[in-house]
Write a structure and sequence with these properties.
- The chain is mainly β.
- Helices cover 0% and strands 47% of the residues.
- It has strands at residues 3-7, 10-12, 18-25, 34-40, 47-53, 59-61, 69-74, 79-84, 93-100, 116-117, 121-125.
- Strand 5 (47-53) and strand 6 (59-61) form a beta hairpin.
- The radius of gyration is 14 Å and the shape is globular.
- The N and C termini lie far apart (40 Å).
Length: 127
């Protein structure tokens, strides 16, 4: 099994930065091929925003977040991070990390590619 435990999030002012964490553990924690971040704003579909390919370290970003969102991973600790700069009110959402036991770079944005999900963490951007 694989457990993804998220931390970070909260209420932040517009323009601030925030880093979310996603720690992987369990018997499959060294066997997933991709770890990604999704977010779901109120009344909207869950959308993929960033992906890290474990095999080659490639990163993928949704066009809507390029330039402000940075994904990284601590391989030794098996923790993935999502740094968000210049936060905007429209970034308000529940953020989820997800891990896939297979990886297709052409399909990283599809929810069906992921087998395990974190519990979600709320990010609220408001003055």
């Amino acid at each position: 099994q694989l457990q993804l435990v998220q931390s970070g999030g909260g209420l932040v002012d517009p323009g601030e930065s925030l880093t979310l964490s996603c720690a992987a553990s369990g018997s499959l924690s060294r066997y997933f091929y991709a770890i990604s971040w999704f977010r779901q704003a109120p009344g909207k579909e869950r959308e993929a925003i960033a992906c890290f390919s474990v095999s080659d370290g490639a990163k993928y970003y949704a066009d809507s977040v390029k330039g402000r969102f940075t994904m990284s991973r601590d391989n030794a600790e098996n923790v993935a991070y999502l740094r968000i700069d210049s936060l905007k009110p429209e970034d308000t959402a529940v953020y989820y990390c997800a891990a896939g036991l297979n990886f297709n770079s052409m399909a990283w944005e599809k929810r069906s590619m992921y087998d395990y999900w974190g519990q979600g963490t709320q990010v609220t951007v408001s003055a």
